[in-house]
Amino acid sequence: MKLWGGRFEKEPSKAAEKFTSSIFFDYRLAEYDVLGSIAHVKMLGKQKIIPKADASKIIKALWKVLASVKSGKFVSDVSCEDIHTDIEKRVIKLAGEAGKKMHTARSRNDQIALDERMYLRAEINSITAEIEELISVFAKIAKENKGLALPGFTHMQHAQPVSLSAWTGAYIAMLSRDAERFKDCFKRVNIMPLGACALAGTSLPIDRVFVAKQLGFPSVVKNTIDAVSDRDHVVEFIAASAIVFMHLSRLAEEMVIWSTKEFKYVEIPDEYSTGSSIMPQKKNPDIFELLRGKTGRVYGNLAGILTILKGLPLAYNSDMQEDKIHLFSAADSVKEALDITALVMAGVKFNKENITYAMQNDFSDAVEAANYLVKKGLSFKAAHNVIGKIVLHCVKEEIGFKELSLTELKVFSDKIGQDFYAVLNK
User: Fold this and answer.
1) What tens digit of pLDDT does each residue of 192-240 get?
2) Domain range for residue 70?
3) Cα angle at 202 between 196 and 205, to 5 degrees?
4) Active-site annotation, residues
5) Of 104, 119, 136, which marks where a domain is finished?
C-alpha cells in the first residue's frame, strides 16, 4: 500500500503510476535523502517524539542504505513512486516496525525541498571549482603568449590592436562574474526547509535548528508555505548556468572562426577535433560547435523551470516534480562544458605569425593616429576626419600608413611630423 493509501478504496492504475512516478530521475538524490533522514531521525529521538531505541534502529538502517549508495550498489526500485518511498521501504525492511516511524513530523514536500538544496550545495561547489580551473587556463594562455598583440574586433571588423592578455582577461572577467553568481546563489540555497512538513509545520515538538546544524545549514526557512513552494534557488542556479553557457558559446564562436583557413589564428588540438566521413582534409572544431549547440539546451531548461512555476498557486503542486529534470540537465551540462572547455583551451596553440600578419595594413592603429593629431592641437572630430581621408587614400592605393612619405602625409595635415610613424603599430 502507498504511504497515502488509507484514504483510497482502489489502487492506482499502472498508467497513473507510470505517469506520476519520479523515481526514474530523482534517484540521483538518494545520498541527500538518506543524510537528511539521518538528521531528522536523530532529532525525533532527541525530542522523544519517537523512542530512542527506534531512532537508533532507523539510523543504523539508514547508514547501511547510504553505504550502498556510495558504493554504487544502490539500484532504485522502479516500483516505488519516488526516491523517498524507495529509501523508506528499504529502512522498514532493515529496521522492521521501527522504520515506519521515520516519516514522523515530515512530508515529502519539505523532504524534496531539503534534498534539492543539499544537492545544489554540492553542485555549486563543484561548478565554482571548475570555473576557477578554467580561469587558471586563461591566465596560463596569457603568460605563455606574453607580448602578443592581435586585432581587436567590433562589428567583426578590425578595430584596435589589443594584447592577447587583454583578450584572455575579458573571459577571465566573465568567468569571475559567473563564479560570483554561483557563490551568491549558494547563500539562498543554504537555508534549511525541513520542518515545514506539507506546508503548515507540525504540532509535534520538533527542533528545526538542531536538524539544520546537523546538515550544515546556518539557518532555516522561516515561512513554512514558502519552504515547500519556493524554487527560486533552482531558477537562479539554472539562470547562472545559462549565463556560463552564453560566455562559453561566445568563446566557442571565436574559436570556430579563428581556426578557419581564412584566419588561422589558432590550432585546436587533434584530440579535440574530428574529421569528415567524405572529405579527408577536414579538421572540424566539433567541441566548440557542440558548446554552442548545448547552450540552447540550458536556455531551454531555464524557460522550462520558469514556465512550470509561473502559474502555480501556493503551496506545493505536483507540477514542481518536473523541476528536477531541468535542474539535473543544467547541472550536468554546465559541469561537462566547463570541464571540456578547460581541456581544449589548455591545448590551443596561437599562431603568432598569422596573427601578426593579419594586422599589417589593417589600419587598426587609426585611433592612435587620430589621438596623435589631438595632441598636436586638433579637435578629435577634425583629427578623425583627417585620418579617415588618409585611410581612404591608402585603401585606394592598396598601401599602409607606413608606406606614405612625410610629404604625402602633410598633404592631409601640416600637423603631422616625423614622430607620426612612432605611434603606428610596432
Assistant:
1) 999 999 999 999 999 999 999 999 999 999 999 999 999 999 999 999 9
2) 12-104
3) 115
4) 155, 276
5) 104
